[in-house]
Design brief:
about 140 residues, two-stranded antiparallel sheet, about 70% helix
Length: about 140
């Protein structure tokens, strides 16, 4: 139930970002209405999930291939991938739905829009709760 609510929240946030925020970013053109934005949101989330899986496999391969010493390298790559993967997923969405989403320039347009979408996806992450400490007494 919680996972479904999180996916629904993520799709809703990306839908509203595609409708209202991304048309204001230079180099991004969005055509369509609510249903087009919802379709774009679903495609974006699917592409983003596939990209996350691909990056997890690459990270695992580097860590195993270097017998654990790759952790130092993959920590920086994980941070960089967290910043760039929404932009890459947006470019993938523009390739899948060229009639709905067009990206004129990759550097300022796609990167800024990717940071906006990354922020909306960060909001939909569950909060990490610290374990409760037991008190003696």
């Amino acid at each position: 139930m919680f996972v479904f609510a999180r996916i629904l929240l993520r799709a809703t946030l990306v839908t509203f970002a595609l409708m209202y925020v991304l048309p204001n970013v230079g180099g991004i053109r969005v055509h369509g209405d609510l249903w087009g934005a919802l379709l774009g949101s679903l495609v974006f989330n699917a592409v983003f999930w596939g990209l996350e899986c691909l990056l997890a496999v690459v990270k695992f391969g580097i860590n195993v291939g270097t017998l654990g010493f790759g952790v130092f390298m993959t920590a920086a790559l994980k941070f960089l991938a967290a910043l760039l993967s929404p932009a890459l997923a947006l470019v993938g969405t523009a390739q899948v739905l060229p009639g709905y989403l067009q990206i004129g320039s990759y550097f300022p347009g796609a990167l800024c829009a990717g940071l906006v979408l990354g922020g909306t996806m960060w909001v939909s992450l569950p909060a990490i709760k610290s374990p409760k400490k037991e008190t003696a007494g």
